[in-house]
Design a protein that fits this description.
InterPro entries: KR_dom, NAD(P)-bd_dom_sf, Sc_DH/Rdtase_CS, SDR, SDR_fam. The protein is an alpha/beta fold. Helices cover 41% and strands 15% of the residues.
């Protein structure tokens, strides 16, 4: 694949966190099939990751793709990982997909669990982006995409900590976007609504009712999100930065969802 900015010698490597299954796997597939050299991380999805690599290579035998083990809840491991990738050839793209959820009423929050969620959803992004942003700005080319959530803007009972982490992520990305725009780096957030993945298993009993209230009439497929990320790391998105793109079937344009 040619350099998305048309410049020879610029890295085509893309890092994706949490790429073994669900939305992450769809992002890995989209990037690899577009010709990027994809490095993705997993915590427990090692078997799924190997199957994903085999599947992609069956479709594109020359695909450059590799998987690395990383627990984003482990601050020390994230620090070591960030230090290591900072010494590697520059990455052109970074997609922070990995995340965890924690459902409880705001008045009943367990701080230890909340801090672990913030480490995975927010602080690990800050650390890894910090390691990659300088090489990107030196190369004057880069794409950073964070997978946020419509929960950052639309309240849902029991979702305070998760929503807060995604709101923090979006706020950080907006600032990073304006700090790096003149250096050819774009920073955007993709904010999915209800996506058909294991993370939404707790909503199974409400699914039919929820789908009736989504204007599109269905949950998103992981590929719906992966395609938007694929656009944001493509040449056509060079002038898109500081944006949050909802991928929610019109949900945030409608009235609040009711279970």
């Amino acid at each position: 694949m040619p350099d998305p900015q048309g410049r020879p010698g610029v890295s085509q490597r893309v890092l994706v966190t949490g790429g073994g299954r669900g939305v992450g796997a769809a992002i890995v597939r989209a990037a690899a099939l577009a010709g990027f050299h994809v490095v993705f991380t997993v915590r427990t999805a090692a078997a799924e990751a190997e199957a994903l690599i085999a599947d992609i290579k069956a479709e594109k035998p020359d695909a450059a793709i590799e998987v690395r083990s990383l627990d984003l809840a482990d601050k020390g491991a994230v620090d070591a990982f960030a230090a290591a990738i900072a010494e590697e050839p520059a990455y052109f793209g970074f997609v922070h997909n990995a995340g965890m959820s924690y459902d409880t009423l705001a008045a009943m929050v367990d701080q230890t669990k909340a801090e672990q969620l913030m480490q995975v959803n927010y602080w690990s992004f800050v650390k890894i982006a910090g390691a990659l942003i300088r090489p990107m700005t030196r190369a004057r080319a880069g794409r950073i995409v964070a997978i946020g959530s419509i929960a950052a803007d639309v309240a849902n009972a029991g979702n305070a900590i998760y929503a807060g982490s995604k709101a923090a992520l979006a706020g950080y990305c907006r600032t990073l976007a304006i700090e790096t725009a003149r250096r050819g780096v774009t920073v955007n957030v993709v904010a999915p609504g209800f996506v058909d993945t294991a993370m939404l298993a707790p909503y199974a009993a409400y699914r039919a009712n929820v789908e009736k209230q989504i204007p599109a009439g269905r949950f998103a497929a992981p590929e719906d999100v992966g395609a938007v990320v694929g656009f944001l790391i493509s040449p056509g998105a060079a002038y898109v930065t500081g944006a949050t793109l909802p991928v929610d079937g019109g949900l945030t344009a409608a009235l609040a969802i009711q279970r």
